[in-house]
Structure formats: C-alpha cells, structure tokens
Amino acid sequence: MGTWLPSIETERRTEACLRKLWDEDTTFQEHTTTDCEYMLSELAAVSAVFRFPLGLVGAVIAVGAMDQLMARTADGTTPPSVAASVLTGRPVDDAPSRLASVVHYLAGVGTGLLFVYLSLVVELLAGGSTPSTVVGTTVLLYVLMVGFFIVVPLPRAVGVDARRRKTIGRAWAIAAAGYLLTLVPATTGLTLLFAP
Q1: In 3D, which of 66, 64, 82 has the Cα closest to residue 167?
Q2: What is the per-residue DSSP string for 74-104?
Q3: Whether 51 and 115 share a structural domain
Q4: Which pLDDT band, with edges at 50, 70 and 90, does 26 fall under?
Q5: 47: alpha, beta or left? (left if phi > 0; alpha if psi -120 to 50)
Q6: Count of domains forming the chain
C-alpha cells in the first residue's frame, strides 16, 4: 500500500533543487541541475487526478500573494473592478466591489487550473517535464493573462481614459507576474511533495 508522504530521496532532491536557487557555487549548481531535472521529470509521471487539486491549492496561495502585490501598486486593485465594470456597465470606480472580488478570486483559481492543464499539454507534446517546459508554460500563461486582460476587458471598461488604461494595464502585468512567481513553485512543489 502506497503512502502520500514523500520518500527521503524525493525530499533530498527537492531540498537540493530549492537550495540551487540561492547558491552561487557553480559546482553546486551543476550538481543540483541534475537534481532539478530529475525532480521535474517525476512531475510528468504524477496523475492529473492529483495535480488539479494541488493546482487549486497553489492558486489560492498565489491569489493571496497577488493581493499583497496589488495593494502596493498604483491602480493595482483596479483590475478586478475593470471586470466588474464590464459585467455591469458601471464606471470602474463605481463597480460593485463584491462582484469584483468574486470575479478576481474565481479567475485566480481558474488560472491555477489552467496552469496545470497547460503543463500537462506541454509535457505531452515535449515528452516529459523539464525546466524548459515549466518555464515555457509559465511564459505562455503570462502572455495569455496579460494579453487577454489588455485586449478584452480593459478597453471595454467604463470611465477609464487612455492614460489610466496604461496604468491599469501595467499594474495588471505586475500582478500577473507576481501571481505566476508564486503559483508555479507552489503548485510544482506541492505536486512533487504530496502526490504519490
């Protein structure tokens, strides 16, 4: 009977892979590159049945981090109001805050699921998971997040001039980057640690 707890070898490789991010020693980095590639190759073997729920957990963590970043950026809390403005036809500054919050959190959780789905597709096409497939999936999702927001809801927002539209678009690009910088390691790490 299998266990959901990670093996000692998996924990060792995960720790070595994470240490690589902070270590400047070339020899250590060369050694841990192999560990990271090994860990990521195991990622593709994890069933979607486990990856999607862990993607949801990673998305909740990422939305929390995104909220912190949005609060510190000029017009950073405005993108959810843009979506509410488009849905209700009201000016962005008068858009219902509850609707803005619901749309924001549902989109955040949905994007976590989209990351898992895109990862599975890229892994299938590439024949496995590597650092390149993870980076490629992350870049693709970033382009989709920012591109969709700038092309679809932002131009349709009520009461936003061109100058403010640029500020809101920049704030969204920063928030989306922060979201993905949290989502990808959280989802990948949780998957490698807790999936059988």
Answers
A1: 82
A2: TTTT-HHHHHHHHHH--BGGGS-HHHHHHHH
A3: yes
A4: very low
A5: beta
A6: 2
Closest of 168, 124, 121, 166 to residue 140, by C-alpha: 121
**Which amino acid makes up residue 187?**
T
Q: Are residues 89 and 152 in the same domain?
A: yes
Q: Is the pTM of this model over 0.90?
A: no
Tens-digit pLDDT profile for residues 69-99: 999 999 999 999 999 999 999 999 999 999 9
Torsion angle of C-alpha atoms 115, 191, 50, 177, degrees rounded to 10: -20
The overall longest dimension of the chain from CA atoms, in Å, is 61
Range of the domain at 26: 1-43
- Is residue 117 exposed (0-12), middle (13-18) or buried (19+ Cβ within 10 Å)? middle
**SS3 label, residue 1:** coil
Same domain, residue pair 35 and 72: no
What string of H, E and C letters represents the secondary structure of 37-67? HHHHHHHCCCCHHHHHHHHHHHHHHHHHHHH
